[in-house]
Amino acid sequence: MDPGFKQEKHPFWGELKLSTSGRLECALSGLAVLRHPYFNKGSAFTAKERTDFELHGLLPPHVQTLQEQEDDLAKNSFMNSMRVQNEVLFYRLILDHLKEMFPIIYTPTEGEAIEKYSSLFRRPEGCFLNIDDADRIETDLSKFGLAEEVDLIVVSDGEQILGIGDQGVGGILISVAKLMLYTICSGVNPARTLPVVLDAGTNNEDLLKDPLYLGLPKSRVRGEKYDNFVDSFIQAAKKLYPKAYIHFEDFGLQNARRILDRYQPKIACFNDDVQGTGCVTLAGIMAANHITGNKMADIRVVMFGAGTAGTGIADQLRDAIAVESKKDPSEAAKQIWCVDKIGVLLESKKDKLTNAQLKFAQEDKNWKGDSDDLLGVIKAVKPHVLIGTSTKPGAFTEEIVKEMAKHVERPVIFPLSNPTRLHEAKPEDLMKWTDCKALVATGSPFPPVKHNRKEYEIAECNNSVCFPGIGLGAILSRTKLMPAELLVEATKAVAAAAPVLKDPQAGLLPDVSVVRDVSVDIAAAVIKKAVELGLAQETDIPEDDAVLKDWIREQMWDPVYRELLRVDEENASPHAKGEVGSNRTH
């Protein structure tokens, strides 16, 4: 049997406060242990544990190992209920079969589960806050642990879920799913996380007409009342859990960036839709620069599509250019040419631009093109990099690609629109049109491209190789903020793990199968920069790189059975009582 997931721990760090090896305190006994997903081992409880925790008679006599429990029947029969029965087994199964399981526990399967949330509802998970009871936010949030017991909060208002739009209260499941990815990809302890949904209503007519819908049956609230609702949540979260890192997920177009811009200067927070896509795309470009010899300070980029994803990517590119070249961000933005439905974003069109787009509007005097369609932009700008987030299938035509290849030896082309049918170009066409000189990454998985008896791997810009490591670094350093400098360092760590650096026919980004190792590197980069900038609140962080990575690994939660240590309930911590964590029931 393939040993699958394995992570070594260094015994030196076993006494750390957040250590994840050694015995695990548990104040429950009998059926309470079996019903708790964090403590339950099913048939794998040892003979001693069965005595200590009064489990005799509640289990069949044979003691199994974790590996024996993980079989095809478990995959087939228990995926829907396994996590709430046995958290360790659930995560172990996923990590041992990560490529196979990833689309089952996240996209595309999770989208369908969210759409059917109300009709499939079995038990509550996480914290449900609604705008009509905003005065109860602090009280309701306080039920999930003490100040030191929550490391990570993922919050959504459910308005823009996974390409399926407004799902209202069903957004709780995207918060749950994102936290699962944090645990899978970077070892964030699931018992120290909290999923939250901010229910401000829904504009999904199907949900509003559905008598089974569990959220507020009213249209979405906008304006000042909505802003106060979000602010009340942030203030309560930081008061109750002052060291928690906050991840915003799947907020609507008009709110996502606005909320991030408001709170990023004040708290340690992150928005994967805005920043995560930008970070992983930037990592791909940095890896490509190793091949092309280009420098961030000099590259010219055309961004085709300037919505949330496009401007989020442009933000990260601008910040990286500014950090590397010591330029002002406004100067760095001049190296990025954004093209949207109205053509090139120019200052003369500012009345038609969003706040996010305005930062990338070029001065009209700098525009030398004859036309501002994509071909005209490519001819005028002569970009090193072409990125697509337009959802216009086939937009990167043979003529456009060959025009780009006239001016640069190795064109970097990223058709990122999802799903696959909306990609701006197929990787096989891009390689054919450039005689395999193009460096390509896509927004969805594609098979390798075969050309002239060679096989070229196509990298996928998968946010999951990036945001979990960033969050792990934020948690372990207790950084006060998550500024651009930390994200740039994280992105460099992803780029440094690119397979193409060792094999010119390999991909520009690391595969999700090695994501835990990459997350250690990302976390180390974030922590070191947080310390350098005086943002880290954790003390005694190791300075030596190798020691730091051991320190990080020791605090990464692993899906292994730890021996349970019986403790007295009266003096037990909320963790030992099973009263905190993402799976705590109300």
From TrEMBL:
GO terms for molecular function: malate dehydrogenase (decarboxylating) (NAD+) activity; metal ion binding; NAD binding. It catalyses: oxaloacetate + H(+) = pyruvate + CO2; (S)-malate + NAD(+) = pyruvate + CO2 + NADH. Residues 83-264 form the Malic enzyme N-terminal domain. Its cofactor is Mg(2+); Mn(2+). The keyword Metal-binding applies. Residues 274-531 form the Malic enzyme NAD-binding domain. (S)-malate binds at residues 418, 462. InterPro entries: Aminoacid_DH-like_N_sf, Malic_enzyme_CS, Malic_N_dom, Malic_N_dom_sf, Malic_NAD-bd, Malic_OxRdtase, NAD(P)-bd_dom_sf. Divalent metal cations. Prefers magnesium or manganese. A divalent metal cation binds at residues 249-250, 273. Pfam families: malic, Malic_M. The active site is at 106 (proton donor), 178 (proton acceptor). One of its GO terms (biological process) is malate metabolic process. Keywords: Metal-binding, NAD, Oxidoreductase. The keyword NAD applies. One of its GO terms (cellular component) is mitochondrion. Belongs to the malic enzymes family. This is Malic enzyme. It comes from Microthyrium microscopicum.
